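Task: encode each sequence below as structure tokens.

Item 1
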Amino acid sequence: MQMKARTALAAATLALSAGLVAAPSASAGTTAQSPRQDTSASQSCWNGSAVRITGGMLQYQECRRTYGGTTQSSLNIRVQDTRTDGYCAEGRGDIGNSANSAGRRVWVTDCSTNGSWSAWKRSGWWNGNEGYVYLYLVAG
């Protein structure tokens, strides 16, 4: 999993590998499910560290499986707007085999500033062996 956090003035980049993140917890939200049931698909999921920038936070869960001989990934993301400054926290999740070829698969925005998290958003299953998570502050 590669994560990028961006603000209007500066960008911070974080990177984690699947081996460094903890096992999923019950509070992580729901696991993305395939539209088709495939009993031969082996699936594993893990939680990533929260991405924090001044004004927002993002949490994610990444899942990976092999389906019909192809590696597929799925992302669950949610964001929290942490400041009353006219900006909203916006999270985006891309899936692919590299950052350059990954496609945007899920996004969520929160402007509440009341300390609550947005609802979890799921990407579904997409071909690719990496998930890329981005956190932005956007004008509200």
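Item 2
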Amino acid sequence: MKTTIKTTLAVILLLATSQLFAQREKEIQNSEVEGIYLNADNFKSGKLTPLTDKQHAGDKIKLKQFFISPQIISIEQGKKTVFYKDSIFSIHLFNGENYRFINRDPYLIADTSSLYIYTRKTVKATSKQVGPRSTFIAVPVTYYYFSFGNHKTIYSLTLANLRKYVLIDSTIHMAVCNKFTTDEMLQKINKNTGHFELNETILSKLNK
């Protein structure tokens, strides 16, 4: 009986894990990385630091994501160079996307029109009662962060953080707080422009 219970639990755990990995955002491949931006100024000016020209045998880039390593490793003509994810600004992909590492996870730099807004799609496991037993299901979630100024510090995208760190100007404060009354509303994107409505609201007051 105990063996049967253990086997059943193992199967449930395996299915839950498989479901989690199946629904996670596609992992960035090492071959997709064109280079890195060492700091925010480099990012703003488009000064990209290439990691390797990939013209020699053994040239490679390792993001080392599987074990959530703090390092990015570049190998060029046998020479190994180590960059730390929390010390660079972002990585740049050949498709034009940029990702900044937050807690060692890559977050898409989704909007830079005012605040820099970062997003990461992933899944979390939650238990659900099905008849007499509970089972695990994978629920899609998206996490949002933002930065401003010198962009060294990153904050969760919440009304509380905006009020505390960003909304100093009374006109902008009123405009944002009148339009966005929940944290979820801050996540809205204008489908016509591709920008977050939060950034458009801030810019509409700055440009007056």
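Check on item 2: The chain has one domain: 2-157. The chain is about 25% helix and 35% strand.
End of task.
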